[in-house]
Design a protein that fits this description.
Elements lengths: L13 H28 L4 H6 L14 H8 L5 H32 L3 H13 L8 H10 L8 H21 L4 H9 L4 H12 L1 H17 L2 H6 L8 H6 L10 H22 L1 H11 L3
Helix pairs in contact: 1-13, 3-13, 4-5, 4-7, 4-10, 5-7, 7-10, 7-14, 8-9, 10-13, 10-14
């Protein structure tokens, strides 16, 4: 019996792998360095943050957790309120984006019409529009429509986050065999039951990827809440950090670094927990279809 010989690709040379490892290790150090500097300077006195930025805390510069206490009580605005508002805005915005854009993507993928194509390309085009082009009219519109509270600003985030989410969800839905939905229809499922019982569970990889990207964006966003929210009543964490100023505009860098560290810890933990789903979801939602 004749056998066909398989072509075996030669393995990469070991020196090449070593050099690539060294290269990417150096690049990763440059990415991690700002976070390390934030951690180091959050435990130092304000004067030493300015003069010995890259030095480790010593007996003279180390202040323990005083910077954290000072930052959370500065200016009379409780830091826990900023955390609460940031959490509400982030969770509501992410939920709205995932819920509405996943349904929209399913409809766009299954209904072949000019309207659906126009909506899809409009969402894709919205990703390339700079925020600076619309921020002044957006601020006026938000005040007119009373979208300037933590409970209504997620509607604005839905508009800005819909482009990427629709793009990713549409690509994934196109990879789902239509026969599965036809079988559900034969069993008596209507459009809503088909979506919630059949399609939505299959969207889990892309849902996790979209959730990670949107949470990281909304949690760290400064400009949109700064323009829209009433800062006398509502402050998110980035706005709270920006207002750590004393008399004559002096900034307590130690307290600023401490609050920055507190703000990035939840995002880092969340990202490290869910990072394995990002590549899977992006590959499934942006390559197929």
């Amino acid at each position: 019996m004749a056998t066909t010989a398989k072509k075996v690709k030669p393995p990469k040379s070991k020196p090449k792998k070593i050099w690539l490892t060294i290269l990417f290790s150096i690049v990763s150090v440059f990415y991690v360095m700002p976070v390390i500097m934030v951690v180091i300077n959050s435990f130092k006195k304000n004067t030493f943050v300015k003069t010995d930025t890259f030095a480790l805390p010593n007996d003279e510069s180390f202040v323990g957790f005083d910077n954290f206490t000072k930052g959370m009580t500065f200016g009379g605005y409780p830091f826990w309120k900023s955390v609460l508002y940031s959490l509400v805005i982030t969770l509501l915005s992410t939920f709205l984006i995932i819920f509405f854009t996943s349904m929209a993507a399913w409809f766009i993928s299954r209904v072949n019409s000019v309207f659906c194509k126009a909506v899809y390309y409009t969402c894709v085009f919205s990703m390339v529009i700079p925020f600076q082009m619309v921020m002044f009219t957006l601020s006026k519109t938000a005040d007119t429509l009373k979208l300037n509270t933590p409970w209504t600003i997620p509607i604005i985030y839905l508009g800005f986050g819909a482009g990427l989410a629709v793009f990713m969800f549409t690509g994934f839905v196109k990879s789902i065999p239509l026969e599965i939905e036809e079988a559900a229809a034969i069993d008596g499922c209507g459009p809503f039951r088909t979506y919630f019982k059949v399609v939505l569970p299959m969207l889990k990889p892309t849902i996790i990827s979209v959730a990670i990207l949107e949470i990281m964006w909304v949690w760290n966003d400064y400009l949109l809440p700064y323009l829209v929210l009433d800062r006398t009543k509502y402050m998110t964490i980035p706005i709270h950090i920006q207002y750590l100023k004393g008399s004559y505009g002096t900034v307590d860098l130690g307290a600023t670094m401490a609050l920055i560290l507190l703000s990035i810890i939840p995002v880092i933990v969340f990202y490290l927990t869910c990072q394995k789903h990002i590549i899977k979801g992006v590959a499934a939602g942006a390559v197929k279809g």
